[in-house]
């Protein structure tokens, strides 16, 4: 490895450890933003703050050209860390358990490297550090509202993942992550005596029928060639063994990939609960809350990333997984300009039982971070090559 590459890698690892030690929750990333601002200014850049969104900075190349935006998210999760690493979280109950610490560190590494390579590209590299990916409505919408995509031609995001060994790059040509929507249902009735069901209305029974029937939306109504999930996550009801429950609340999530899938699931969930309530004589409230939209990659941009990844990690270290049913607010950027999101494996190859993203045991094999940094940098250089 060249000497500057070694220094960049050292810098990335030290920044990652700093962020890991001082994690901050979604929309509370003040200390993190301060530190990133200082680092960028130290490099001679002029970071711009977008209130509630985060910050960004531009690195201009030699001649005017296109603009490539690279995005890192900054927030941690309300999880109590259970690892024994020396730079364990000092903010009790908060942990960088999704690897956003490494995203920020790698993007700073890209910046540190590119400020000395301005003669190697035309146009602008925009570094986006965004708040609150983990907490809908998320920070991406605020960044976009603040003008972060102005003049941007391409946007690229990289996420670390626990279910691939360190050094692996996972690429999806098109559908990458799902629409992540939520529904809330309240069923209300007069309840009744447990011994005389015919005189009351049982909301718990209606809810139970609904939980089972909702699964037929995926199996009988949605297009089977499009992945879809409906999960009822909570059902709250009842207070005594011999009382018919007058109120039941359900909450769940729907994952789809198309707008049609979204509309259909909303329509049928509502109709099912409506029909059940009519049949048994209860009232209901139904709310469908649209969360992050599906993240659809731009195939041309993905093929550029593939070409660069092949050079850096080799074809045998590129995997092409199935789309994820998770959500990601990078999707908002990719709706506006050609965008691509891909994954970097960070699990230590010797680890038999690695902690997953969002678990208190999540750790990162830091040897992947140099590669991740180089990959992002080279993708930007390739897209802006003179
Ligand atoms: Zn996450
Ligand atoms: Zn994440």
Helices and strands, with pairings:
Layout: H1 3-21, H2 30-42, E1 48-50, E2 54-60, E3 67-73, H3 100-114, E4 124-130, H4 140-145, E5 154-165, E6 169-170, E7 175-177, E8 179-188, E9 192-193, H5 203-221, E10 229-237, E11 243-244, E12 247-256, H6 259-280, E13 283-289, E14 295-296, H7 299-313, E15 318-319, H8 330-336, E16 339-347, H9 367-383
Parallel strand pairs: 3-4, 3-5, 5-16, 6-15
Antiparallel strand pairs: 1-2, 2-4, 6-16, 7-14, 8-12, 8-13, 9-11, 10-12
Helix pairs in contact: 1-3, 1-9, 3-9, 5-6, 7-9
Bound molecules: zinc ion (2 copies).
Can you give a write-up of this model?
There is one protein chain. The chain is of the alpha/beta class. It has 2 domains: 3-176 and 294-383, Aminopeptidase; 179-289, Alpha-Beta Plaits, CATH 3.30.70. Helix content is 34%, strand content 24%. It has 9 helices and 16 strands. The strands form 4 sheets. The protein has an 8-stranded mixed sheet with strand order 1-2-4-3-5-16-6-15. It has a 4-stranded antiparallel sheet with strand order 10-12-8-13, covered by helices on one side. Helix 5 (203-221) packs antiparallel against helix 6 (259-280). The structure holds zinc ion (ZN) (2 copies).
Helix content: 25-40%
Mean pLDDT: 96
Total count of strands: 16
Number of domains: 2
Bound molecules: zinc ion
Q: Low-confidence spans: pLDDT under 50, at least 5 residues?
A: none
Terminal CA distance = 25 Å
CATH domain topology of the largest domain = Aminopeptidase
Shape: elongated
Task: Supply the CATH class of the largest domain.
Answer: Alpha Beta
Largest sheet, spatial ordering of strands: 1-2-4-3-5-16-6-15
The radius of gyration over CA amounts to: 24 Å
The major β-sheet equals: 8 strands, mixed
């Amino acid at each position: 490895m060249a000497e500057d590459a070694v220094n960049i890698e050292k810098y990335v690892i030290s920044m990652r450890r700093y962020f890991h030690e001082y994690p901050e929750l979604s929309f509370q990333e003040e200390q993190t933003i301060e530190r990133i601002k200082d680092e960028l200014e130290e490099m001679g850049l002029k970071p711009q703050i977008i209130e509630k969104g985060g910050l960004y900075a531009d690195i201009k190349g030699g001649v005017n050209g296109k603009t490539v935006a690279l995005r890192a998210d900054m927030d941690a999760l309300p999880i109590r860390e259970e690892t024994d690493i020396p730079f364990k979280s000092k903010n009790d109950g908060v942990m960088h358990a999704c690897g956003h610490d490494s995203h920020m560190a790698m993007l700073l590494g890209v910046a540190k490297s590119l400020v000395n390579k301005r003669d190697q590209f035309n146009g602008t590299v925009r570094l986006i550090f965004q708040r609150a990916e983990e907490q809908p409505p998320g920070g991406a919408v605020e960044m976009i509202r603040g003008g972060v995509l102005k003049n941007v031609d391409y946007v690229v995001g990289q996420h670390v993942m626990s279910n691939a060994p360190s050094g692996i790059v996972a690429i999806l040509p098109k559908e990458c992550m799902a629409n992540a929507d939520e529904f809330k249902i309240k069923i209300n009735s007069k309840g009744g005596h447990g011994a005389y069901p015919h005189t009351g209305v049982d909301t718990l029974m209606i809810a139970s029928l609904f939980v089972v029937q909702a699964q037929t939306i995926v199996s009988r109504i949605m297009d089977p060639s499009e992945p879809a999930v409906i999960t009822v996550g909570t059902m709250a009801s009842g207070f005594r063994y011999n009382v018919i429950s007058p109120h039941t609340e359900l909450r769940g999530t729907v994952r789809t990939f198309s707008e049609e899938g979204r509309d259909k699931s909303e329509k049928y969930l509502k109709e099912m609960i409506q029909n059940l309530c009519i049949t048994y004589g209860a009232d209901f409230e139904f709310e469908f809350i649209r969360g992050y939209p599906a993240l659809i990659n731009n195939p041309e941009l993905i093929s550029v990333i593939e070409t660069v990844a092949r050079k850096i990690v080799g074809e045998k270290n590129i995997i092409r997984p199935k789309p994820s049913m998770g959500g990601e607010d990078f999707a908002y950027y990719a709706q506006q300009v050609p965008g691509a999101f891909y994954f970097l494996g960070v699990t230590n190859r010797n680890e038999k039982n690695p902690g997953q993203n969002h678990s208190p045991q999540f750790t990162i094999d830091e040897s992947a971070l140099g590669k991740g940094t180089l990959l992002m940098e080279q993708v930007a250089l390739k897209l802006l090559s003179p």
